[in-house]
Structure formats: C-alpha cells, structure tokens
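User: two proteins, same treatment. go.

Assistant:
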Amino acid sequence: MVQPTPDHFAGLEHLATAIILLDDNRRVVYINPGAEVIFAFSATQTTGLLINEVFPNCEMLMLAVNNAIKQQSPFREHEFAISTQKHNSIAVTCTVTPLDSPVACLILEFQQMDAQLRIAREERMLVQQQANAELLRNLAHEIRNPLGGLRGAAQLLEHELSSPSLREYTQVIIKEADRLQSLMDRLLIPHRAPKYQSTNIHEVLERVRSLLLAESPKGIHIQRDYDLSLPELIGDREKLIQAVLNIARNAAQAMQSHSTADSKITLRTRAERQVTLARKRYRVAIKLEIIDNGPGIPADIRDRIFYPLVSGSEGGSGLGLTLAQTFITQHHGMIECESVPGNTCFTILLPIETTAIKQAVSKQ
C-alpha cells in the first residue's frame, strides 16, 4: 500500500455520512469528520487499528467486510447495533465496498439510523400535534359561548334567591364555570404569536427553580448542573419558562404524591453538536435535561404523554406536556422522554441559530 496523504481523501472530508477506509490488513487508514462525530472518536485514536479493535464484538460488521472481500462487490448490512471502544451503542446501516486504490482496499460507509428514526418520530409528532391543536382550538371555541351563558344565568338566579343556603349552589356553578373558562383560555394560549428575543437558558431555569421551590415541599431538592459557556438563543422567554415549568412541576407532583425519599430534580444543560431537527441540520443546539428520581411515568400512558387530556395524576388536566411540546416546537426544537421507576429524563433540544426565528424577530 502507498503511504496516504491528505490529498487522497480530500473528496471525503465534507460528506455527511461516516466514512472509514481500510487497507488490505483491515487496518484503518482514514476516517472522515462525519465518522468522528457519529462515533465520538478521533482519527488519531483509530488510524492504524484493526477494524475489529475499533468496533469490538460486532459480528454483523465483520460479516459485511468478509462478504465484500470474498465477493469483490459491495455488501450492505441493514440496521444493526454497533459499539465503539467507549461502549457507545449506535444503530447504523453499513455499506462495504471494495476499492481499487493504492491507499485503501475497502471503504465502509455508515448511515446513522438513530437520527433517521428520530426524524420520522418527529414528523409523526408534528402531525399529531397539529391535529391536537386544531381539535383543542375547536373544542375551546365550542365550549366558551355556552359556558358564558351558563355563568350569566347562575348569576341572575342568585339575585332571585332569598335563601343563603340556595345561593351556595349558584356559587358552585359560577366557580366551576370560571374554572372551565380558565381551562379554555389555556387551550388557546399556544396559538398566540411568540415574542422572540435574545434569551439566556439559565435565566429561564433559575426562574423555574424559584417557582418550584416556592410551591413544592421542602423535601424536594433541585440540583443545578449548568454549562455556563452556552451562548444565548433567540426565544420567547415566558413560553420557555412555561414549557420547562410544566415538565418540572409534573415531576415534583409525582414525587410528592408517592412520598419518594430523597426526592431530587436535576436541571442540566449541555451543548449538542451536529443536531438534526425537523430535517434541518444545526451546527450546535442547547441540550436541556430535566431529570427526577420519582416513580416514573405509568407504562400505559408512556407513549401518549404529549397527547392532550392524558394525565398520570389524579385531577390533572393533561395539558401541561401538550403545551410544553407546542412551545418547544415554536422554537424549532423537540422534546423526548425516557422513563423507568427511579429515573425519568425529559430532554429538550433547542437550536441556537435559527434563520426563521431571526426573521420573525426582525418583523416584530
């Protein structure tokens, strides 16, 4: 084999897919930046290693390599899990192609299926969210008018009643009508246009933390794990506060109702690089995690928690997470959730640079 130079690989540097080149001894001679990002290792760490040292115990990959060499034709292995030396497991599809090149004899091209599956899930969630929003908006409008008439009739009736004990019943009608009116207002809030401005995510979290401490029992500890180097993003501060508060408040209420010992909520921020959200690639995004050690989300509603009127707590409206998802979507972000007893994590991804949002800001 000829000693490779950077010029040999110039055409591979800018590919979005992960590329690894092997010599005739199945040793790595080159990996492109896409592979470094997906597998979280560097060219310095991997160049010169055998491919089974880079990806230990991966029989599917070795099978693809062996078949490509044996048949001297491309071989594709679909959707299998691959683990690196750091034990990061990733779902990929790999195409192994023999090369007639002086610097390499095999090219391995990896496509990360996790990202594609997430994109498909995002699209389904967006369609569902749009249907939910339309349903709730129509429902709110249909209920508000008769609700106002019901409340007005109860007030008129109250003035005609002489007995205080009877007026107690009209007060029940009026108070319940007001409660339903408040609920209808909350259903219509998401459709108000956001007010975008430069926003510090940690100021948002500190506001949420102060609100939780004011309304939660002293037994709940709120831990901060912030990356203070994160830049500001363009967002609606109040809607971001409401989104995070709805999630964190659910966690606090769940731990309070189950009397969890050493109850803890963690607010964590990190930078997430090379993120795809709604089929658009962002160089960097803010990754916000809201983690609690409570009882977890019941299995029977775990896949429906963002649907309206689905609640795991008695007396809950089932709108908190629906509104949170709506507000985050308005920021071109997304929410994911993983939950087992003792560890529930809501992950919010918010792109730092969004052209569409910047254009909206300029028009305000």
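Protein 2:
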Amino acid sequence: MKWRLSIYGRTLVSISLAILIIFSVLAVVYTSISSATSKQLRLDDLERNANELADLTARHMQEGGRIFITAEVSGYWTYAARSTGAIVCIIDGNNHIVYDTGLPAYLVEQLEYDVAERYFVLPNELTNRGRSNYSSAAEQTGLNEYLDDSSSWLVASSPLPSYTRVYTGEVLLLRHLRPDSFTALLQENSIPISFFISFLLSLIIIVLLSRRITEPISTLALTADKVYKGDLSARVKLGKEEQPLTLDDGDEDLARHEDDLTLLVRTFNTLIAKFEEQERQQSDFLSSISHDLRTPITSIHGFIEAMRDGTIPPERYPHYLDIVKSETERLRQLIDTLFDQTLDGNINALNRSVFNINNLIIRIVNSLEPLLKGKNLTLELQLSDGEGTGYNVIADEDAITRVLSNILTNAIRFAPQSGLVLVRTSLENRLVHVAVEDNGEGISDEDIPYIFDRFYKAERSRSTEGSGLGLYIARTLIKRHGQLIKAYHSDLGGAGIMFTLERP
C-alpha cells in the first residue's frame, strides 16, 4: 500500500520546517551578536578589575619591589576572583607567581620552579613587560601554547604601578568561558534555549491551528472520494454537531460572516445533493421509460400472435395494423426521448439555413392533428400580423422542428378537453418571437424557474404522461442557437412558452 501524506501532515511539516529554519537563523545571528557583545563586556570587566587589583597590590609593595601579602590584600584578590569568575595571579618583578587563586595543574607543570624562593616562575614571553594594560583572547597572546583550548580563555593584564620604567610585576587575570555549572550553562545558552522553547510553543500552536484549518479540507477530500466511488449520500460535516451544511439551510446573516472554506463546504454539499436528486430522477425516469416501452411491445407482440394463430380474423387486420402502427410510432417517440438524454454529451454542429418559420409551424400543426382531435382542441394561429406570409429565420430547421413539436405537444397535453391552444409569431427588435399558449391550469410561480430543468415536472403534472425532458430539450436547442426561451403566465389563463429566432 502506497503511503500518502495528508494535507494536514503536509501543512504541519511545511510550516514547522519554515519556522524551524527561521528560528535557527535568528538563533545563530542573535547568539553570535550576543556572544561577541558578551565577550567584549567580559574583556572590559577583566581589564577594569586587573587595574583595580594592580593599584591595590602596589600599596602593599615594599621598597625593594617585594610584594607583602597580608590577609587583607589576599582577601581582595579572592573576592575579585569570585566576582569575576577569573583566576587571579600576582606576579612580582622577578617573574615569580607570588599568589594565585588556582591555576590549572597542566599549566603549572609547564612552568619552572624557583627552589630558593619557592615560587613558580612565569616565562618572560608571558609577562607584560610592555607596561600597558590589555585584555584579549588567550589565543592571541603567548599563553596560546600553554593553555588547553586557548580559544575559550580570556586574559587581562595590568602592570603594577612604578615611578620608573622598570618592570615591577603585574596582575594577571585568566577567565575560562565555558560554564562550570548547570545554571551557568543555562545563562550561557539563554538565547538558543529561548528560541528552542519558542519553537516548541509555536509547534504546539501550529498543530492546533493546522488541524482546525485542514480538517475540513481533509473531510472534503474523503467525501469527494466517496462520491467518486458512487456514494452520493456522503456529505461533508463540520462543527461539534457535525451538520451537513448546504447553501439552502444557511442563515444569510451568518453566511456573510463565514470563511471561504465553510462556503466551499456548503457549495460542495449542495452540488452532491443535486447530483443525488438528479440521479434519483434519472433512475425514476428510466424505470418509467422501461415500463412505457414494455407496454407497446407487449401490445404489438399480442396483436401479431393473435393474427398468426387466427384469433383475429383477416377482415380485422387493417384495424389492428393501424393500432400496431400507432404503437410503433409510440415506441419511436420513446426511443427518441432516450436518445435525447445524451444531448449534452453528444452535440452535433448546427446545420443553419434560411427558412420560413410560419410554414414550419403550419407543417408541425398538421402533423399533430390526431392529438388535437383526440382532445377536441381548437388551435388558433396568429402568424405575421394574421396575413400568413411569415418571417424568414436563420436556424437549424430540424432542431427548431423538435423545439416546436415539444412545446406544442406539451401545450396539447395540459390544455383542458375542448380547450384552446394559441400559436403566434411577431417581430420585435429584429428578432422573431414565437409563442405557444394554452388555457389550461398554467404554471405556478414556484415552478416557473425550474420548468426547463431536466426531468422536472410541476406538482400538478406528476400524474400525467411525459418524461420531463421536452422543455429541457427545447431550451438546450434554443440556447445552442444563442437565443432566448422563457415561460410565463398566458392571458388565456394557462401557460405560455416563448422563444426567439434570428433573422437572416
């Protein structure tokens, strides 16, 4: 099974990496700046303390240059060592280390020992015979060869005051930069630790926010996968109540304050609901058509078998052959209706030509004469100002034939017994308007916006014949011509359908 990273995982990893990189860069920059600043402050502090200790030590020197060590002065040296964190070395004019607060053993082992004076001797190259105060990194001094890891040591030196230019000794301070306790370690690395804690807190916030933001998207993806696999009952559910939000059940005031993601979920759920309803309608339609196909086939089969086995005498053949012909015509119409369902996916190019729309209307009306007589309907034509000369239009004649046949058949179906159907043409704004009206029950205001939808049937017509495709096909063909078609309330009291055609 191939592993796939979810959008939540990708978002979390991407944002976490971005913040980690930013925090790492900032930590390195600020740590470098802080280290440089801290190092300089420590050097300045060491130099200042070295100067003060040199003045203090000079007050306890004898005339011969010998340093007189008392409890008071050694106390100052010890206090300075503790306050600065440095090793204090007092060196006399003979390079003797007369006092120190704890030089590293490996450094002492490298020094000569004066047995007579019982002091360790500092080499000349390590003494401050230039008689100038200085503070520096140990690696930049002669101590570089004597100290392990000299880059982590700071050195400050201050010569003992003298009225002559003769070297009388110095105060030497050595400070190791590496922390010697956990508290010092925390202080030394406070900036990286602070950035690391900030990153962890940010990561927690990112985890919470990312889940909140991406959870609807992940749910949306899972629902889309279910729909792709055929489960049209799936819905995206959000919130603690996990309600499947749609565009139809939302409060308008609340919807205006919702984010784009919630609106996307509402739209997605609404589309699925429409697909589900369309699937149900199509299933109902196919079931109805299957039933309608079975009936004429059964009738035709029964009549033919009856004629073959002699149940129907030869003199009655013409009558039943007319019935068979009528049933085959009915079958043809049902099959045409089935083919019309693929209209959107199999659109052929329009074969436009110039023809007389009034002549076409008369031809179609004549073909529908049996239907008109069956309901004893009156059909009134009001064509081209009543003169019958007609208007020339440019369109696909076969397509417009289907449009008029569907609209007229629809009007005949819903006109009352012995009712009236009106067909009229007129010229408005250089467009030919064709209208078909009846005096039936009409269309309700609620049904008018949906009357051209596929498989749609108004509530009053659910028990009537028809597939709900006639007006949908008419609208599709008119739209392909780039023209207008609409439904309205007729002055006759029933429904009216009007469409436009372009003149050549």
